[in-house]
Design a protein that fits this description.
The structure holds two protein chains of two kinds. By secondary structure, chain A is mostly helical. Chain A starts with a helix and ends with a helix. The model of chain A has no long low-confidence stretch (mean pLDDT about 80). Chain A has two domains: about 5-100, no CATH class; about 110-175, Winged helix-like DNA-binding domain superfamily/Winged helix DNA-binding domain (Arc Repressor Mutant, subunit A, Orthogonal Bundle), CATH 1.10.10. Helix content of chain A is about 75%, strand content about 0%. By secondary structure, chain B is of the alpha+beta class. Chain B has three domains: about 5-60, no CATH class; about 60-280, Jelly Rolls, CATH 2.60.120.1440; about 290-360, Phage tail protein beta-alpha-beta fold (3-Layer(bab) Sandwich). Chain B has a 17-stranded mixed sheet that branches. A three-stranded mixed sheet of chain B has the order 19-22-21, covered by helices on one side. Chain B is globular. In chain B, about 35% of the residues are buried. The model of chain B is unreliable at about 85-115 (pLDDT under 50). The chains are: A mainly alpha, B alpha+beta. Chains A and B meet through helix 1, helix 2, helix 5, helix 6 and helix 10 of A and helix 1, helix 2, helix 3 and helix 4 of B.
Chain lengths: ~180, ~375
Protein backbone atom coordinates (compact mmCIF):
# COMPACT_ATOMS: atom_id res chain seq x y z
CA UNK A 1 0.00 0.00 0.00
CA UNK A 2 1.30 3.43 -0.88
CA UNK A 3 1.70 5.85 2.00
CA UNK A 4 -0.17 9.13 1.76
CA UNK A 5 1.95 12.12 0.63
CA UNK A 6 1.25 14.00 3.82
CA UNK A 7 2.54 11.06 5.86
CA UNK A 8 5.71 10.93 3.80
CA UNK A 9 6.32 14.61 4.34
CA UNK A 10 5.76 14.35 8.07
CA UNK A 11 7.97 11.32 8.43
CA UNK A 12 10.78 12.89 6.41
CA UNK A 13 10.61 16.06 8.43
CA UNK A 14 10.83 14.07 11.61
CA UNK A 15 13.83 12.08 10.38
CA UNK A 16 15.59 15.20 9.19
CA UNK A 17 15.04 16.96 12.49
CA UNK A 18 16.52 14.01 14.25
CA UNK A 19 19.45 13.06 12.05
CA UNK A 20 20.21 15.81 9.52
CA UNK A 21 23.23 17.32 11.30
CA UNK A 22 24.67 13.93 12.15
CA UNK A 23 24.30 12.77 8.55
CA UNK A 24 26.11 15.86 7.32
CA UNK A 25 28.91 15.10 9.76
CA UNK A 26 29.20 11.56 8.36
CA UNK A 27 29.40 12.95 4.85
CA UNK A 28 31.81 15.80 5.56
CA UNK A 29 34.41 13.29 6.69
CA UNK A 30 34.62 12.22 3.06
CA UNK A 31 34.02 15.44 1.16
CA UNK A 32 35.73 17.91 3.54
CA UNK A 33 33.18 20.50 2.46
CA UNK A 34 30.11 21.56 4.38
CA UNK A 35 28.31 22.77 1.25
CA UNK A 36 28.91 19.61 -0.72
CA UNK A 37 27.86 17.43 2.19
CA UNK A 38 24.63 19.34 2.70
CA UNK A 39 23.95 18.89 -0.99
CA UNK A 40 24.60 15.16 -0.80
CA UNK A 41 22.39 14.66 2.25
CA UNK A 42 19.57 16.76 0.82
CA UNK A 43 19.79 14.91 -2.48
CA UNK A 44 19.36 11.61 -0.69
CA UNK A 45 16.28 12.94 1.10
CA UNK A 46 14.82 14.26 -2.16
CA UNK A 47 15.35 10.85 -3.71
CA UNK A 48 13.79 9.04 -0.77
CA UNK A 49 10.84 11.35 -0.89
CA UNK A 50 10.27 10.67 -4.55
CA UNK A 51 10.64 6.95 -4.13
CA UNK A 52 8.70 6.84 -0.88
CA UNK A 53 11.54 4.83 0.52
CA UNK A 54 11.90 5.50 4.20
CA UNK A 55 8.35 4.48 4.98
CA UNK A 56 8.79 1.04 3.52
CA UNK A 57 11.99 0.49 5.50
CA UNK A 58 10.05 0.40 8.72
CA UNK A 59 12.43 -1.62 10.79
CA UNK A 60 15.38 0.73 11.02
CA UNK A 61 15.35 3.88 8.94
CA UNK A 62 18.30 5.27 10.91
CA UNK A 63 20.74 2.57 9.87
CA UNK A 64 19.45 2.74 6.32
CA UNK A 65 19.93 6.52 6.20
CA UNK A 66 23.47 6.44 7.52
CA UNK A 67 24.39 3.68 5.08
CA UNK A 68 22.91 5.62 2.16
CA UNK A 69 24.74 8.81 3.07
CA UNK A 70 28.04 6.98 3.43
CA UNK A 71 27.59 5.37 0.02
CA UNK A 72 26.51 8.61 -1.63
CA UNK A 73 29.54 10.41 -0.18
CA UNK A 74 31.98 7.72 -1.32
CA UNK A 75 30.32 7.82 -4.74
CA UNK A 76 30.80 11.56 -4.85
CA UNK A 77 34.52 11.48 -4.09
CA UNK A 78 35.03 8.69 -6.61
CA UNK A 79 33.13 10.47 -9.34
CA UNK A 80 35.08 13.66 -8.74
CA UNK A 81 38.39 11.79 -8.64
CA UNK A 82 39.39 13.00 -5.21
CA UNK A 83 42.96 11.96 -4.53
CA UNK A 84 43.15 10.63 -0.99
CA UNK A 85 45.37 8.40 1.13
CA UNK A 86 42.59 5.95 1.80
CA UNK A 87 44.17 4.10 4.73
CA UNK A 88 44.96 7.30 6.65
CA UNK A 89 41.56 8.80 5.87
CA UNK A 90 39.72 5.70 7.00
CA UNK A 91 41.67 5.53 10.23
CA UNK A 92 40.42 9.00 11.07
CA UNK A 93 36.71 8.49 10.45
CA UNK A 94 34.52 8.31 13.52
CA UNK A 95 31.52 6.05 13.90
CA UNK A 96 27.86 7.06 14.15
CA UNK A 97 27.84 6.44 17.88
CA UNK A 98 30.52 9.06 18.38
CA UNK A 99 28.58 11.73 16.50
CA UNK A 100 26.92 13.65 19.29
CA UNK A 101 27.16 17.29 20.21
CA UNK A 102 28.98 16.39 23.40
CA UNK A 103 31.63 14.23 21.79
CA UNK A 104 32.26 16.52 18.83
CA UNK A 105 32.63 19.65 20.93
CA UNK A 106 34.88 17.80 23.37
CA UNK A 107 37.28 16.78 20.60
CA UNK A 108 37.25 20.30 19.27
CA UNK A 109 37.92 21.91 22.61
CA UNK A 110 40.78 19.59 23.34
CA UNK A 111 42.36 20.73 20.13
CA UNK A 112 41.82 24.39 20.83
CA UNK A 113 43.22 24.17 24.30
CA UNK A 114 46.53 23.27 22.71
CA UNK A 115 46.79 26.52 20.88
CA UNK A 116 45.22 28.57 23.62
CA UNK A 117 48.67 29.71 24.64
CA UNK A 118 49.03 31.91 21.60
CA UNK A 119 47.89 35.48 21.85
CA UNK A 120 45.47 36.81 19.29
CA UNK A 121 48.11 38.89 17.56
CA UNK A 122 50.52 36.00 17.41
CA UNK A 123 47.82 33.88 15.83
CA UNK A 124 46.90 36.59 13.33
CA UNK A 125 50.54 37.11 12.32
CA UNK A 126 51.16 33.41 12.00
CA UNK A 127 48.08 33.02 9.89
CA UNK A 128 48.96 35.90 7.60
CA UNK A 129 52.52 34.75 7.06
CA UNK A 130 52.21 30.99 6.91
CA UNK A 131 48.76 30.46 5.52
CA UNK A 132 48.18 33.53 3.42
CA UNK A 133 51.82 33.75 2.37
CA UNK A 134 52.07 37.46 3.05
CA UNK A 135 55.27 39.45 3.53
CA UNK A 136 56.24 40.96 6.87
CA UNK A 137 55.73 44.41 5.41
CA UNK A 138 52.21 43.69 4.18
CA UNK A 139 51.21 42.22 7.53
CA UNK A 140 52.66 45.20 9.37
CA UNK A 141 50.67 47.62 7.24
CA UNK A 142 47.46 45.68 7.60
CA UNK A 143 47.72 45.32 11.35
CA UNK A 144 49.10 48.80 11.78
CA UNK A 145 52.20 47.66 13.67
CA UNK A 146 55.91 47.84 12.87
CA UNK A 147 57.75 45.22 10.83
CA UNK A 148 59.88 44.39 13.86
CA UNK A 149 56.81 43.71 15.98
CA UNK A 150 55.51 41.38 13.28
CA UNK A 151 58.82 39.49 13.37
CA UNK A 152 58.68 39.24 17.14
CA UNK A 153 55.13 37.87 17.15
CA UNK A 154 56.01 35.40 14.45
CA UNK A 155 59.12 34.14 16.24
CA UNK A 156 57.28 33.86 19.55
CA UNK A 157 54.41 31.94 17.98
CA UNK A 158 56.78 29.49 16.33
CA UNK A 159 58.69 28.98 19.56
CA UNK A 160 55.51 28.17 21.49
CA UNK A 161 54.37 25.80 18.84
CA UNK A 162 57.55 23.86 18.44
CA UNK A 163 57.41 23.09 22.13
CA UNK A 164 53.82 21.96 22.09
CA UNK A 165 52.66 20.49 18.85
CA UNK A 166 53.64 20.24 15.22
CA UNK A 167 53.15 23.26 13.06
CA UNK A 168 50.99 21.23 10.74
CA UNK A 169 48.19 21.06 13.26
CA UNK A 170 48.22 24.74 13.80
CA UNK A 171 47.99 25.42 10.14
CA UNK A 172 44.72 23.64 9.99
CA UNK A 173 43.25 25.60 12.78
CA UNK A 174 44.34 28.82 11.25
CA UNK A 175 43.71 28.16 7.61
CA UNK A 176 40.65 29.65 6.00
CA UNK A 177 37.68 27.38 5.56
CA UNK B 1 60.49 18.12 7.65
CA UNK B 2 57.70 20.50 6.86
CA UNK B 3 58.69 22.90 4.15
CA UNK B 4 56.57 25.72 2.77
CA UNK B 5 56.07 23.60 -0.31
CA UNK B 6 54.75 20.64 1.68
CA UNK B 7 52.47 22.94 3.66
CA UNK B 8 50.98 24.15 0.42
CA UNK B 9 50.50 20.58 -0.78
CA UNK B 10 48.79 19.70 2.50
CA UNK B 11 46.47 22.63 2.07
CA UNK B 12 45.64 21.56 -1.46
CA UNK B 13 45.12 18.00 -0.30
CA UNK B 14 42.66 19.16 2.30
CA UNK B 15 40.68 21.22 -0.19
CA UNK B 16 40.85 18.54 -2.86
CA UNK B 17 42.55 20.79 -5.36
CA UNK B 18 45.75 18.73 -5.47
CA UNK B 19 46.96 17.69 -8.93
CA UNK B 20 48.10 14.19 -9.82
CA UNK B 21 51.80 15.14 -9.79
CA UNK B 22 51.45 17.01 -6.50
CA UNK B 23 49.67 14.06 -4.96
CA UNK B 24 52.55 11.78 -5.95
CA UNK B 25 54.97 14.30 -4.50
CA UNK B 26 53.13 14.22 -1.20
CA UNK B 27 53.05 10.42 -1.40
CA UNK B 28 56.82 10.19 -1.67
CA UNK B 29 57.19 12.74 1.12
CA UNK B 30 55.31 10.52 3.58
CA UNK B 31 57.41 7.56 2.50
CA UNK B 32 60.58 9.44 3.44
CA UNK B 33 60.11 8.99 7.17
CA UNK B 34 57.71 7.77 9.81
CA UNK B 35 57.71 11.26 11.25
CA UNK B 36 56.33 12.64 7.99
CA UNK B 37 53.63 10.01 7.97
CA UNK B 38 52.75 10.88 11.55
CA UNK B 39 52.49 14.56 10.64
CA UNK B 40 50.14 13.88 7.76
CA UNK B 41 48.05 11.65 9.95
CA UNK B 42 47.80 14.36 12.61
CA UNK B 43 47.00 16.95 9.99
CA UNK B 44 44.12 14.90 8.62
CA UNK B 45 42.96 13.86 12.06
CA UNK B 46 42.71 17.41 13.32
CA UNK B 47 41.07 19.04 10.37
CA UNK B 48 38.45 16.31 10.51
CA UNK B 49 37.83 17.26 14.15
CA UNK B 50 37.40 20.89 13.11
CA UNK B 51 35.14 20.20 10.15
CA UNK B 52 32.97 17.74 12.05
CA UNK B 53 32.26 20.25 14.79
CA UNK B 54 31.79 22.98 12.24
CA UNK B 55 29.32 20.92 10.28
CA UNK B 56 27.38 19.89 13.36
CA UNK B 57 27.06 23.49 14.43
CA UNK B 58 26.25 25.04 11.08
CA UNK B 59 23.61 22.72 9.77
CA UNK B 60 19.97 23.51 10.33
CA UNK B 61 17.42 20.76 9.81
CA UNK B 62 14.51 23.18 9.28
CA UNK B 63 16.29 25.15 6.57
CA UNK B 64 17.40 21.87 5.00
CA UNK B 65 13.91 20.44 5.03
CA UNK B 66 12.53 23.49 3.23
CA UNK B 67 15.30 23.11 0.69
CA UNK B 68 14.49 19.46 0.16
CA UNK B 69 10.85 20.37 -0.32
CA UNK B 70 11.70 23.03 -2.88
CA UNK B 71 14.20 20.81 -4.70
CA UNK B 72 11.68 18.03 -4.95
CA UNK B 73 9.12 20.45 -6.37
CA UNK B 74 11.57 21.85 -8.91
CA UNK B 75 12.68 18.38 -9.93
CA UNK B 76 9.13 17.22 -10.44
CA UNK B 77 8.49 20.28 -12.59
CA UNK B 78 11.65 19.89 -14.60
CA UNK B 79 10.71 16.34 -15.34
CA UNK B 80 7.40 17.37 -16.85
CA UNK B 81 9.01 20.18 -18.78
CA UNK B 82 11.63 17.85 -20.16
CA UNK B 83 9.01 15.47 -21.45
CA UNK B 84 7.10 18.24 -23.13
CA UNK B 85 10.24 19.50 -24.76
CA UNK B 86 11.35 16.22 -26.29
CA UNK B 87 8.72 16.63 -28.96
CA UNK B 88 9.19 20.35 -29.19
CA UNK B 89 12.92 19.83 -29.54
CA UNK B 90 12.66 17.74 -32.66
CA UNK B 91 10.32 20.20 -34.32
CA UNK B 92 12.21 23.31 -33.36
CA UNK B 93 15.60 21.94 -34.25
CA UNK B 94 14.31 21.18 -37.72
CA UNK B 95 12.69 24.52 -38.26
CA UNK B 96 15.03 26.99 -36.64
CA UNK B 97 18.21 25.00 -36.30
CA UNK B 98 18.98 26.76 -33.07
CA UNK B 99 20.63 25.27 -30.02
CA UNK B 100 17.90 26.13 -27.59
CA UNK B 101 14.32 25.21 -27.19
CA UNK B 102 11.67 26.75 -25.11
CA UNK B 103 8.55 26.04 -23.31
CA UNK B 104 6.12 28.53 -22.06
CA UNK B 105 4.09 28.05 -18.97
CA UNK B 106 0.47 29.12 -18.76
CA UNK B 107 1.23 32.23 -16.80
CA UNK B 108 -1.86 34.32 -16.62
CA UNK B 109 -1.28 37.93 -17.49
CA UNK B 110 -3.70 40.47 -16.22
CA UNK B 111 -4.67 43.20 -18.61
CA UNK B 112 -3.93 46.62 -17.27
CA UNK B 113 -3.42 49.93 -18.97
CA UNK B 114 0.24 49.92 -18.04
CA UNK B 115 1.31 46.32 -18.47
CA UNK B 116 3.04 45.89 -21.76
CA UNK B 117 1.31 43.11 -23.56
CA UNK B 118 3.72 43.04 -26.46
CA UNK B 119 6.77 42.37 -24.31
CA UNK B 120 9.12 39.77 -25.72
CA UNK B 121 12.40 38.10 -24.88
CA UNK B 122 15.10 38.00 -27.51
CA UNK B 123 17.59 35.16 -27.96
CA UNK B 124 20.64 35.79 -30.12
CA UNK B 125 22.92 32.87 -30.91
CA UNK B 126 26.60 32.87 -31.87
CA UNK B 127 25.84 33.36 -35.56
CA UNK B 128 23.76 36.42 -34.82
CA UNK B 129 20.57 34.56 -35.56
CA UNK B 130 17.71 35.92 -33.47
CA UNK B 131 14.70 34.23 -32.03
CA UNK B 132 11.76 35.79 -30.23
CA UNK B 133 10.66 34.04 -27.05
CA UNK B 134 7.59 34.62 -24.99
CA UNK B 135 7.95 36.94 -22.03
CA UNK B 136 7.53 35.15 -18.70
CA UNK B 137 8.37 31.87 -20.41
CA UNK B 138 11.05 29.32 -19.92
CA UNK B 139 13.87 27.91 -22.03
CA UNK B 140 15.75 24.70 -21.55
CA UNK B 141 19.18 24.52 -23.10
CA UNK B 142 19.96 21.57 -25.27
CA UNK B 143 22.29 19.23 -23.39
CA UNK B 144 23.01 17.14 -26.46
CA UNK B 145 25.42 19.64 -28.01
CA UNK B 146 28.24 17.71 -29.65
CA UNK B 147 31.19 17.47 -27.25
CA UNK B 148 33.71 18.29 -29.97
CA UNK B 149 31.80 21.26 -31.32
CA UNK B 150 33.35 24.62 -30.46
CA UNK B 151 31.82 26.51 -27.54
CA UNK B 152 29.31 29.09 -28.74
CA UNK B 153 27.70 31.88 -26.82
CA UNK B 154 24.03 32.79 -26.73
CA UNK B 155 22.60 36.02 -25.41
CA UNK B 156 19.15 36.47 -23.90
CA UNK B 157 17.64 39.88 -23.35
CA UNK B 158 14.49 40.76 -21.43
CA UNK B 159 12.69 44.06 -21.91
CA UNK B 160 11.82 46.52 -19.17
CA UNK B 161 9.07 44.85 -17.15
CA UNK B 162 9.85 41.45 -18.61
CA UNK B 163 11.17 38.30 -17.02
CA UNK B 164 12.32 34.90 -18.16
CA UNK B 165 13.52 31.57 -16.79
CA UNK B 166 16.46 29.72 -18.27
CA UNK B 167 17.70 26.23 -17.55
CA UNK B 168 21.36 25.90 -18.45
CA UNK B 169 23.02 22.77 -19.89
CA UNK B 170 24.17 21.76 -16.38
CA UNK B 171 20.54 22.03 -15.08
CA UNK B 172 21.30 25.19 -13.15
CA UNK B 173 18.28 27.48 -13.19
CA UNK B 174 18.53 31.22 -13.86
CA UNK B 175 15.60 33.61 -13.44
CA UNK B 176 16.14 36.80 -15.42
CA UNK B 177 14.48 39.96 -14.18
CA UNK B 178 13.39 43.03 -16.09
CA UNK B 179 15.72 44.74 -18.57
CA UNK B 180 18.44 42.15 -18.26
CA UNK B 181 21.03 40.76 -20.65
CA UNK B 182 22.50 37.32 -19.98
CA UNK B 183 25.27 35.67 -22.00
CA UNK B 184 26.04 31.97 -21.63
CA UNK B 185 27.86 29.20 -23.52
CA UNK B 186 25.91 26.39 -25.17
CA UNK B 187 27.94 23.85 -23.21
CA UNK B 188 30.25 23.94 -20.20
CA UNK B 189 33.80 22.63 -20.39
CA UNK B 190 36.20 22.87 -17.43
CA UNK B 191 34.36 25.83 -15.92
CA UNK B 192 30.96 27.47 -16.07
CA UNK B 193 31.27 31.13 -16.93
CA UNK B 194 28.37 33.47 -17.67
CA UNK B 195 27.88 37.22 -17.98
CA UNK B 196 25.11 39.37 -16.57
CA UNK B 197 23.87 42.94 -16.94
CA UNK B 198 20.70 43.51 -14.96
CA UNK B 199 19.25 41.20 -12.34
CA UNK B 200 19.11 37.43 -12.03
CA UNK B 201 18.51 34.77 -9.41
CA UNK B 202 20.70 31.67 -9.73
CA UNK B 203 20.05 28.16 -8.48
CA UNK B 204 23.34 26.57 -9.41
CA UNK B 205 23.51 22.80 -9.69
CA UNK B 206 26.52 21.17 -8.10
CA UNK B 207 28.64 19.30 -10.63
CA UNK B 208 32.21 19.86 -9.47
CA UNK B 209 32.87 22.68 -11.94
CA UNK B 210 33.28 26.23 -10.70
CA UNK B 211 30.39 28.53 -11.68
CA UNK B 212 31.41 32.14 -12.36
CA UNK B 213 29.18 35.11 -12.98
CA UNK B 214 30.76 38.21 -14.43
CA UNK B 215 28.65 41.25 -13.64
CA UNK B 216 29.78 44.84 -14.17
CA UNK B 217 33.46 43.94 -13.85
CA UNK B 218 32.91 41.92 -10.66
CA UNK B 219 33.27 38.17 -10.40
CA UNK B 220 31.00 35.98 -8.36
CA UNK B 221 32.40 32.50 -7.90
CA UNK B 222 30.41 29.56 -6.57
CA UNK B 223 30.21 25.77 -6.59
CA UNK B 224 26.53 25.01 -6.05
CA UNK B 225 24.18 27.40 -4.34
CA UNK B 226 21.34 29.94 -4.55
CA UNK B 227 21.95 33.65 -4.86
CA UNK B 228 20.64 36.84 -6.44
CA UNK B 229 22.67 39.38 -8.36
CA UNK B 230 21.47 42.83 -9.25
CA UNK B 231 23.88 44.61 -11.59
CA UNK B 232 22.17 47.40 -13.46
CA UNK B 233 24.35 50.04 -15.09
CA UNK B 234 24.95 53.18 -12.99
CA UNK B 235 23.61 51.54 -9.86
CA UNK B 236 25.35 49.82 -6.96
CA UNK B 237 25.67 46.13 -7.60
CA UNK B 238 24.35 43.70 -4.99
CA UNK B 239 24.94 39.98 -4.53
CA UNK B 240 22.60 38.31 -2.02
CA UNK B 241 23.26 34.79 -0.83
CA UNK B 242 20.41 32.48 0.13
CA UNK B 243 22.21 29.18 0.48
CA UNK B 244 25.76 27.80 0.17
CA UNK B 245 28.82 29.98 -0.21
CA UNK B 246 29.92 32.51 -2.82
CA UNK B 247 33.01 34.59 -3.34
CA UNK B 248 32.62 38.10 -4.71
CA UNK B 249 35.72 39.71 -6.17
CA UNK B 250 36.89 42.57 -8.34
CA UNK B 251 40.19 44.32 -8.99
CA UNK B 252 39.99 46.03 -5.60
CA UNK B 253 39.21 43.22 -3.18
CA UNK B 254 37.32 40.02 -2.56
CA UNK B 255 34.80 38.90 0.06
CA UNK B 256 33.19 35.57 0.92
CA UNK B 257 29.47 35.62 1.68
CA UNK B 258 27.61 33.29 4.03
CA UNK B 259 23.84 32.72 3.77
CA UNK B 260 21.79 35.78 4.69
CA UNK B 261 24.54 38.18 3.71
CA UNK B 262 24.56 40.72 0.92
CA UNK B 263 27.58 42.26 -0.73
CA UNK B 264 27.08 45.79 -2.00
CA UNK B 265 29.60 46.97 -4.56
CA UNK B 266 29.71 50.70 -5.02
CA UNK B 267 29.34 51.73 -8.65
CA UNK B 268 31.75 54.62 -8.13
CA UNK B 269 34.54 53.18 -5.97
CA UNK B 270 34.07 49.41 -6.58
CA UNK B 271 34.49 48.92 -2.82
CA UNK B 272 32.74 45.82 -1.47
CA UNK B 273 30.79 46.07 1.77
CA UNK B 274 28.82 43.30 3.46
CA UNK B 275 25.59 43.46 5.44
CA UNK B 276 23.05 41.04 6.87
CA UNK B 277 19.70 41.13 5.06
CA UNK B 278 16.39 39.35 4.88
CA UNK B 279 17.08 37.53 1.61
CA UNK B 280 13.38 37.07 0.81
CA UNK B 281 13.12 40.78 0.04
CA UNK B 282 15.73 40.47 -2.69
CA UNK B 283 14.63 37.19 -4.19
CA UNK B 284 10.83 37.22 -4.06
CA UNK B 285 10.66 38.89 -7.48
CA UNK B 286 11.18 35.48 -9.08
CA UNK B 287 7.69 34.52 -8.00
CA UNK B 288 6.31 37.89 -9.05
CA UNK B 289 6.25 39.43 -5.59
CA UNK B 290 8.21 42.45 -4.48
CA UNK B 291 8.67 42.33 -0.71
CA UNK B 292 10.11 45.35 1.01
CA UNK B 293 10.93 46.18 4.56
CA UNK B 294 11.52 49.80 5.52
CA UNK B 295 12.51 50.60 1.94
CA UNK B 296 12.65 54.17 0.65
CA UNK B 297 9.85 55.00 -1.78
CA UNK B 298 12.46 55.55 -4.46
CA UNK B 299 13.47 51.86 -4.48
CA UNK B 300 9.87 50.72 -4.52
CA UNK B 301 9.04 53.00 -7.42
CA UNK B 302 12.16 51.84 -9.25
CA UNK B 303 10.85 48.28 -9.13
CA UNK B 304 7.39 49.37 -10.25
CA UNK B 305 8.76 51.47 -13.06
CA UNK B 306 10.71 48.43 -14.27
CA UNK B 307 7.67 46.17 -14.16
CA UNK B 308 5.30 48.61 -15.83
CA UNK B 309 7.83 50.64 -17.81
CA UNK B 310 6.81 53.98 -16.38
CA UNK B 311 8.88 56.99 -15.43
CA UNK B 312 8.43 58.47 -11.98
CA UNK B 313 8.65 62.12 -10.95
CA UNK B 314 8.66 63.33 -7.35
CA UNK B 315 7.21 66.70 -6.45
CA UNK B 316 8.98 67.62 -4.25
CA UNK B 317 12.07 65.43 -4.66
CA UNK B 318 12.26 64.78 -0.89
CA UNK B 319 9.25 62.42 -1.11
CA UNK B 320 11.48 59.68 -2.51
CA UNK B 321 12.94 59.16 0.96
CA UNK B 322 9.74 58.10 2.76
CA UNK B 323 10.06 54.49 3.94
CA UNK B 324 7.55 51.66 3.51
CA UNK B 325 7.11 48.03 4.48
CA UNK B 326 4.89 45.63 2.51
CA UNK B 327 4.53 43.55 -0.65
CA UNK B 328 3.54 44.24 -4.24
CA UNK B 329 2.45 41.69 -6.83
CA UNK B 330 3.57 41.78 -10.44
CA UNK B 331 0.43 40.15 -11.82
CA UNK B 332 -1.75 42.87 -10.30
CA UNK B 333 -2.33 46.07 -12.20
CA UNK B 334 -0.22 49.14 -11.55
CA UNK B 335 -3.27 50.97 -10.18
CA UNK B 336 -3.81 48.25 -7.61
CA UNK B 337 -0.23 48.57 -6.37
CA UNK B 338 -0.32 52.33 -6.27
CA UNK B 339 -3.64 52.33 -4.41
CA UNK B 340 -2.10 50.24 -1.66
CA UNK B 341 0.78 52.64 -1.17
CA UNK B 342 -1.59 55.60 -1.36
CA UNK B 343 -3.94 54.13 1.26
CA UNK B 344 -1.32 53.77 3.93
CA UNK B 345 0.66 56.93 3.41
CA UNK B 346 0.68 60.65 2.92
CA UNK B 347 1.52 60.46 -0.75
CA UNK B 348 -0.74 60.26 -3.75
CA UNK B 349 -0.05 59.37 -7.34
CA UNK B 350 -1.13 61.14 -10.50
CA UNK B 351 -0.65 59.90 -14.00
CA UNK B 352 0.40 62.56 -16.37
CA UNK B 353 1.86 62.28 -19.83
CA UNK B 354 2.84 58.63 -19.36
CA UNK B 355 4.60 59.48 -16.13
CA UNK B 356 3.69 58.87 -12.53
CA UNK B 357 3.85 62.00 -10.43
CA UNK B 358 4.29 61.50 -6.69
CA UNK B 359 2.85 64.27 -4.52
CA UNK B 360 1.93 64.90 -0.94
CA UNK B 361 -1.74 64.29 -0.19
CA UNK B 362 -4.00 67.27 0.15
CA UNK B 363 -1.84 69.60 -1.86
CA UNK B 364 -3.54 71.10 -4.87
CA UNK B 365 -1.62 72.17 -7.89
Amino acid sequence: MNPKPIQTEKKLKELMNKYYSQLCVVSVQYTDSLEISEDIVQDVFVRFWEENKLLSVETNPKAYLFRSIRNASIDYIRKNNYRVFTDIEEANLISEEEISEEELSLQYERLYRMIGQLSQQERAVLNAIVVENKRYKEVAEEMNISVNTVKTYFARALRTLRKELPLSILLILLSPK
Amino acid sequence: MLTAEIIELLNKYRHHSISHTEFEQLGSWIKESDENKRLLNLYIKYYKVVERWDTYQHTDATVAFNNVKERRRLKARRFIIRRVSVVAACLLLLIVGTTCLYYYGNRSSSITPYSRLEKTVLLTNANGKQQVLKNGGELICDTTVNKDAPIQYNTIKTQPGGNFKLILPDHSVVWLNSNTTFRYPTKFVKERRVELTGEAFFDVAHNGLVFMVNAAGNNIKVMGTQFNISAYPMRNMTATLVRGKVKVSNQISNKVLTPGQQAVISSSSAAISIREVNTAIYTSWIIGVFDFNDEPLQNIMEQLSEWYNMDVVYEPESLCNIHFTGSLYRDKSLDYSLDIVQDVSDVCFLKYNGKIVVRKKGKMY
